[in-house]
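Design job #97: recover the sequence.
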């Protein structure tokens, strides 16, 4: 799905996906919808130390399994971008802005080497506060169900 702009349902979908990742144990420094100035659509960026420790493929498998468990959901795996916490623009945001509850919206900014046209941030914490998982992430629907209620 091409998200040239976000509507209220997109905010809820993004929040639900991020909450599911957190509930299942994925350590997240920064998560939110971002539209890069050189892109045409919003993507849900998730900066986690698990990318550099366990590799992006392990994190992408975790995210794909989570989306399967949350189906039907209005977000495609191609709209989610796993980011590392050492060099990504999203990670630099975590060191300058703290968001732990609610939503923070940003307008045009330059973050690291990226020009961001707009963003909606759900989680933003300093990289030093977010430790990687000791083992590669594996999504467990039972953990998600336990966290939900």
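Job complete. Output follows.
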């Amino acid at each position: 799905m091409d998200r040239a702009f976000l509507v209220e349902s997109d905010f809820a979908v993004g929040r639900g996906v991020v909450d599911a990742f957190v509930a299942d144990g994925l350590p997240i420094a920064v998560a939110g919808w971002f539209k890069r100035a050189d892109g045409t659509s919003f993507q849900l960026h998730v900066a986690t130390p698990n990318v550099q420790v366990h590799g992006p493929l392990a994190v992408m498998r975790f995210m794909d399994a989570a989306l399967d468990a949350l189906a039907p959901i209005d977000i495609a795996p191609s709209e989610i971008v796993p980011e590392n916490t050492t060099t990504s623009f999203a990670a630099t945001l975590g060191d300058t802005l703290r968001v732990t509850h609610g939503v923070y919206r940003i307008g045009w900014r330059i973050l690291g080497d990226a020009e961001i046209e707009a963003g909606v941030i759900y989680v933003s914490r300093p990289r030093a506060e977010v430790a990687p998982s000791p083992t590669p992430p594996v999504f467990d629907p039972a953990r998600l169900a336990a966290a939900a209620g």
